[in-house]
Design goal:
Elements (H helix, E strand, L loop, with lengths): L2 E7 L2 E7 L5 H8 L18 E4 L2 E4 L12 E3 L12 H8 L9 H14 L5 H7 L11 H10 L9
Parallel strand pairs: 1-5
Antiparallel strand pairs: 1-2, 3-4, 3-5
């Protein structure tokens, strides 16, 4: 049994027929082709599948797509505007916060959510904001540095 579900992803509206048990991760990757959202643990432990739901980080692997009907979802693909990377994406590149890249989309989205309301986060606030995102490559130092360096330069209306 499938149900009609309306999703707003990266400011684009989609009407889909999906099973009520289908996760947001599966819809994003399989139905919409947005593969920047990564499949990691499938149990809400690693953060690779993090997306923003109305500006708040959520784990798409444990969120049912039908539960977010009509709400705004942002994936890593929606961060760039007019072909220009988001400042947080640029900072991750500039400060070497990307290694294998698997955790990067979730890390960036978690950082964007933090910086939307806090332009001067402490190291502890950054650690808390990204604590749901596991990285096996960087040791987090460069990720934290990138977030600290970009924070003051963000316009107040950044998402």
């Amino acid at each position: 049994m499938r149900q009609k579900t309306r999703l707003i992803v990266n400011d684009q509206e989609y009407e889909l027929l999906i099973r009520p048990s289908k996760t947001l991760l599966d819809v994003l990757r399989d139905d919409l082709g947005l593969t920047g959202t990564k499949r990691g643990c499938d149990s809400g432990e690693c953060g690779a599948c993090t997306v923003l739901l109305e500006g708040i980080p959520v784990l798409s692997c444990i969120t049912l797509a039908c539960e977010v009907e009509g709400r705004r979802i942002q994936t890593i693909e929606g961060m760039a505007k007019d072909g220009e990377l988001h400042p947080v994406q640029k900072a991750f590149i500039e400060y070497g916060a990307i290694q294998c890249g698997f955790c990067t989309p979730g890390m960036i989205l978690s950082a964007v959510a933090l910086l939307k309301g806090n332009k001067t986060p402490s190291t502890d606030e950054i650690k808390k904001a990204i604590s749901g995102n596991l990285c096996r490559c960087t040791g987090y130092i460069k990720i934290i540095e990138a977030i600290q360096k970009v924070a003051p330069s963000l316009p107040s209306e950044e998402e």
